[in-house]
Structures are given as structure tokens and as C-alpha cells.
Specification:
Layout (H helix, E strand, L loop, with lengths): L1 H6 L4 H14 L17 H18 L6 E2 L6 H6 L3 H4 L6 H14 L4 E2 L6 E8 L5 E9 L7 E2 L11 E4 L3 H6 L17 E4 L8 H13 L8 E4 L14 E4 H10 L3 H13 L3 H10 L5 E2 L15 E2 L1 H11 L7 E2 L5 E2 L6 H12 L39 E2 L2 E2 L5 H6 L2 E10 L2 E10 L7 E8 L5 E2 L18 H17 L2
Parallel strand pairs: 6-7
Antiparallel strand pairs: 1-2, 1-19, 3-4, 3-18, 4-5, 8-9, 10-11, 12-13, 14-15, 16-17, 17-18
């Protein structure tokens, strides 16, 4: 026991005090996926330890200590409102982000403390040297669970102990964070009641997965020229106009720079192949019921506001992409779920796109390397694709970050193949962390969904330099990413 305490930083004592109770009560169960020699004889301990430490890390960030720039009913809320993209559930463009800040500055709006504890869902899956899961944990936080609540997981990395509610802004603002619409039927008596934060552009992970399944089935090729035509879409659509590109280019823009118009094209492509409902059914059938593409428009692929993702099921989707050998978990009907849900070629392509992520600004903040704010997060090496070799600054799809990232590149510890997503009431980041050659070992999957989007700012947030893309998330995301990285690194390196 003492050796475990020595591994832990500030959260060690709090975590160790609850581990034995968690194991005894079965809050976290043994038997994850495909056990290896590294996993035998200690899964209950590993799971309980990770769950307790994750909960302590959630509580440590004091997520309620933020300011609301557009409180419900305020003048600022009336002046700024939502962009049309956000009304559709899509990220605002860089120009819209800058316009929002100018409007708030002109109105001389004074932010107010957030009126209640935020919603957060955080899942972590630790992996062994072969990429197999050796521990897993999921923690939710809300006004009802302000210091975090550990979600019980079974041997299939699943839970039936949460009554998940679909996200709704008005409900969160006016109903103490309690959702009114069930995301999964039949969970009315589950002991944990939680409104799942809107996943924003992390939902593009589901779209990409579906597109690559169509590739694997031979229905399309990434090299096909796709003529996107949104004729008939509502005048309010933010999906853009007609355009023809190779499917792989739409896919790349959707993942690496989160281009909404390209995501609309890929959603429309799924509709044209009658694979939106089919994809939802596929996810449910393999034990990922909290991955749902709902209510999107077939005519243009827009309107994403009803999409649903839990952190746990998001993390399991990344487990498939990781290419982990053997049985990952068993589906509800007992069928083994393996990496073969996608072909090796499709997994490799998807991972390449995720490793070329341009928006490293949440759990990792490397794009702002060297600034006093936001705090450093997961010590990620980012893709050279976005770095100006002359001055080391990052520019991606109209976002100018303005910092020389080369010092952080030299000091990086890990690759982080991930996808971010944000709107005014949503901040998300999820991906696979793997140590760089010669660096301190760690390998894990992390997924965080929270409602702290660009509507909320830290009290200590400084003004952004002129002409620089503004910090869009609370730095609590980066601090939390660093905390989780420290936890998992300590497990691998006593």
C-alpha cells in the first residue's frame, strides 16, 4: 500500500482512503477486456485506484470557479445570443468567435459567477504495452454531484447505473442541471441521474467511423470525388454551398481543423447511403448506446444539436481505433467486439488524421506554448503540418495562435491523437495518449465532455494579444489533462 501512495501526488492520500471501500462494494469490478500477463491479479485494485484518483482530480479543478459572460436574461445574452452555427450545434467560425468578443467588449458586459456547478463526464482507460485495457474509470460531475460521482463499470467497460439525459441549454440553466429527456430508454430507476453534455464537434468521430465503415464495405472509396449539393436546405443552414472534393479531403478537414462544412458533407453522405440509423444501431449492438447521431438533416447534413455521446462510450470508440488485439469487450448479445470493427487500413488512416489534429487547445494547450495562460496540459508533440518553420508559430484554418511552439515540441513527452469540440455551452476533448520514444512511459485513452464552452471564462483570464486566436476554453481543461497524465504516468512508473 505504501508504494502506491508514493506514486501519487496531491490526490494520493484522498484516493488511497477510498480504494479499499470501492473494491469491497463493487463500485469498480475486475475483468477488463482481454487480460494479459501485465493485468492478472490486480484489476480490482487498478480500477478502484484509477476511479478514486480520477474523482479526486475532477474535484481538485474547482470547475465552478468560472464566470458566465452571457448569464441567462442578461443584456449580454440578448446582444450576443448564439451564432447560427451554434443553433445548429456546430462550432462558430474564427470570424464569429472574434465578433462575439467584440460585441461583448462594446457592450462592456460584466461576467457573473456561474450560477451552478457545471456538468462534466470524464473517462480514462489505461492500456498495457500491447495496448490492452488494464484499468478503466468514469466520473461524472453536476449540481447533484459537485465533487464528482464514480460510475460503476462492469467487465465490458459498460454501465447500466446511469440514467443519461439528453443535453438541453434551457433545462440546464433553469432546472438545476436536471435533464428531462432520456437518452437511453429503460433507465428510469438507475441510481445516478446525469444530463450528458453536448459533444459538439467530437461527434465528428462518429461520422468518420461511419464513413470508414462504408469504405470497408466497398460502397465508397476515399479517393472518390464527392459532389456535395445542399440544394433545398433551410436558408439558415451553416453548411455552405455546393462543392466537389475527394472524400478523403472532406474527412481530413472535418477531423484536423473541425471544418463544419466538410462534416455536413460527410453526414449527407451517410444519409445518402442510408447509414445514419444503421450506424446508430451498430453502435448500440456492440455496447455503445451513448453514441447517437440524431435529427440531422438529410438534405445538407446539418443540424447536430440532438447528437449524443458519453465520455465512456467515446473512450471505447478510441479503443477500437487504437488497434488493440484480442477481445476489447463483449456486446450485449455476448459477441466479442474487436478492432476489426474497422479494417487495419481504415484505422491507420483515422489515426493519422487524429495525430494531425490542429486544434491542440483543451486537454493539451501546446498551440499556445510559452504563454502564462492557459496553463500547460498534456505534454503533447503536435503535427509539424501546422507549424511555420521560420518562426515556429501555428496557424490552422484562419486561427493564428502566435506562439513559437518549438520549445514545447522539444520538451514533448507524448503523442495525442485526439478530437476537440466546442460551442458556447460545450467543451470537449478525447483521444489516445502514447509516450514518445525514450520518454517516461504512459499509454491511455481520455475523454472529457463538459458544458464549459466559450460562454464561460476563468476569473484570471488575461486579454488575448491583438490578432491572435482567443483562448476558447477554461484553462481547467489543460490543468485536468495534466493531472490525469501525472496519475497514469505514476502507475506505469513507480
Amino acid at each position: 500500500m505504501k508504494s502506491h501512495r508514493r506514486r501519487l501526488p496531491w490526490y494520493g492520500v484522498a484516493a488511497a482512503a477510498t480504494v479499499a471501500a470501492l473494491v469491497a462494494t463493487g463500485v469498480v469490478v475486475a475483468g477488463i477486456g482481454n487480460a494479459s500477463a501485465e493485468t492478472t491479479g490486480g484489476q480490482s485494485w487498478r480500477n478502484a485506484r484509477l476511479a478514486a484518483q480520477l474523482r479526486a482530480a475532477v474535484a481538485q479543478q474547482d470547475w465552478k470557479n468560472v464566470l458566465d459572460t452571457t448569464p441567462p436574461g442578461s443584456t449580454a445574452a440578448r446582444l450576443v445570443g448564439k451564432t447560427q452555427a451554434e443553433k445548429d450545434g456546430a462550432e462558430p467560425s474564427p470570424a464569429q468567435v472574434m465578433q462575439r468578443l467584440r460585441t461583448l467588449a462594446t457592450a462592456q458586459a460584466t461576467p457573473a459567477p456561474i450560477h451552478q456547478n457545471p456538468q462534466l463526464d470524464a473517462a480514462v482507460i489505461e492500456l498495457d504495452s500491447a495496448g490492452r485495457p488494464i484499468a478503466a474509470a468514469d466520473v461524472v460531475m453536476s449540481p447533484q454531484y459537485p465533487t464528482g460521482k464514480i460510475v460503476p463499470l462492469d467487465a465490458n467497460l459498460s454501465t447500466d447505473q446511469v440514467r443519461y439525459r439528453a443535453w438541453d441549454d434551457d433545462t440546464w440553466d433553469n432546472n438545476n442541471g436536471q435533464g428531462v429527456k432520456d437518452a437511453i430508454p429503460g433507465r428510469e430507476n438507475a441510481p445516478i441521474d446525469f444530463m450528458s453534455p453536448y459533444p459538439a464537434s467530437v461527434f465528428k468521430m462518429m461520422v468518420g467511423f461511419g464513413v470508414l465503415q462504408l469504405v470497408d464495405k466497398g460502397e465508397i472509396s476515399l479517393d472518390d470525388q464527392y459532389a456535395y449539393d445542399p440544394t433545398g436546405a433551410p436558408s439558415t443552414s451553416s453548411c455552405g454551398g455546393k462543392v466537389t472534393k475527394p472524400i478523403r479531403q472532406f474527412f481530413d478537414e472535418m477531423i484536423t481543423v473541425s471544418r463544419n462544412e466538410s462534416a455536413c458533407a460527410m453526414v449527407k453522405l451517410l444519409h445518402q447511403h442510408n447509414y445514419v440509423t444503421g450506424l446508430n444501431d451498430y453502435f448500440a449492438g456492440i455496447g455503445l448506446p451513448m453514441l447517437q447521431i440524431n435529427g440531422t438533416r438529410p438534405v445538407d447534413g446539418g443540424r447536430w444539436v440532438d447528437n449524443i455521446m458519453s465520455a465512456l462510450d467515446t473512450a471505447k470508440l478510441f479503443l477500437i481505433l487504437n488497434g488493440t488485439p484480442g477481445t476489447l469487450w463483449k456486446a450485449p448479445d455476448g459477441t466479442p467486439v474487436t478492432r476489426d470493427a474497422l479494417s487495419a487500413t481504415s484505422r491507420a488512416f483515422f489515426l493519422k488524421e487524429l495525430n494531425e489534429q490542429a486544434l491542440n487547445q483543451a486537454l493539451s494547450t501546446t498551440n499556445w506554448c510559452g504563454r502564462a495562460y492557459p496553463a500547460p496540459g498534456i505534454p503533447q508533440r503536435i503535427s509539424d503540418r501546422w507549424i511555420n518553420p521560420a518562426d515556429g508559430t501555428v496557424t490552422a484554418a484562419g486561427r493564428v495562435y502566435g506562439q513559437d511552439v518549438r520549445p514545447c515540441q522539444a520538451a514533448a513527452q507524448v503523442n495525442f491523437a485526439h478530437k476537440t469540440g466546442f460551442v458556447d455551452t460545450s467543451g470537449n476533448d478525447a483521444g489516445i495518449v502514447d509516450s514518445l520514444p525514450g520518454k517516461t512511459r504512459r499509454h491511455y485513452i481520455i475523454a472529457v465532455h463538459c458544458n464549459l464552452g466559450n460562454r464561460y471564462i476563468d476569473p484570471n483570464r488575461p486579454a488575448d494579444p491583438p490578432g491572435i486566436y482567443p483562448v476558447q476554453y477554461s484553462e481547467k481543461y489543460g490543468l485536468f489533462g495534466k493531472a490525469v497524465d501525472t496519475i497514469v504516468t505514476g502507475h506505469h512508473n513507480p
